[in-house]
Amino acid sequence: MLVVIAIIGVLIALLLPAVQQAREAARRMACSNNKKQIGLALHNYHDTHLRFPPGAISGHVTCTASGQPLGGGTDECNQVFAPWTVLILAFMEEAPLHDKFDFTKIFSPYSDTCTSVNKTWQFQPLKKFQCPSDPLSDNETPTLNYLACQGGGDPTVFDSTLNAACSGSSTPTRAFYTNGMFYNNSKTRFADVTDGMTNTIMVGEGQYHFLLGAHTTATTRQSSWASGELPNSPYASPITLCAAGNSINSAPQIASSIQLAEASSIFGSRHPGGCHFTLGDASVHFFSENMDLAVYRALGRRGDGLPTGGWN
């Protein structure tokens, strides 16, 4: 009897990794399909409006010479409007949800800031924007795993000519870019992507979510898939956008606003070895976390003219 039990235990131990791998393969396939549908929705939006949706809609942002935000207080909430994720809902078979939002009103960046009639729907989870491999996708949180690409480049170098907003950090770490397809108040057209749609990142995966405190466990302040971009704030962050800055799946520091800046330049996922990217032609590819950093950053930019051959 003991021998039989031991044999069964060994068989289970041998089969369990295979079962887990099969489940991850299914989740990865579902994630890839989510990314494909988002890419098609963005193209359909362009067909209708003759441009892609802005990455975010917000008021003018003023920065100091070192990249620090000016302003603050409750007036910040008068400048925060719909992000790209909400603007494409009608092209994702989510027209009823799209119609529930009031686009003349603000879209609160976080769950505990900026009173708005849109909050009722902003902080309801939407599975189409969540990766099945992310544990948070199972507990009814309104997280976002698919981030539009705002550009590419070294995030440790602050360059005011490439920033649409302030770094939001105590150091001049770049959190906002404008050399990609989607950024604050962007109006990108096919013709503006001079590097070619097959050589430019449109949407990538993200695995870091803004939560108050250590930004990993607290739930008193939370962003969502429908969060607006908060300008002129010490915690300025694009929220629904990211950049090809740091290596794929690298980890940000766990420290207040510094992490916000770093997380805004890290695409990543819970998939082993890399993450999915939707390119400008709506094709979906899995990029290795070990891919050449210079090539990766160039793919984040829409028109730098640099060669990216061999990345795939």
Automatic annotation (TrEMBL):
Superkingdom in the source lineage: Bacteria
Entry-linked Gene3D superfamilies: Glycoprotein, Type 4 Pilin
Family matches, as InterPro entries: DUF1559, Pilin-like, Pre_pil_HX9DG_C
Domain DUF1559 span(s) in chain numbering: 20-293
Name of a matching Pfam family: SBP_bac_10
Transmembrane regions: none
Name of this chain's protein: DUF1559 domain-containing protein
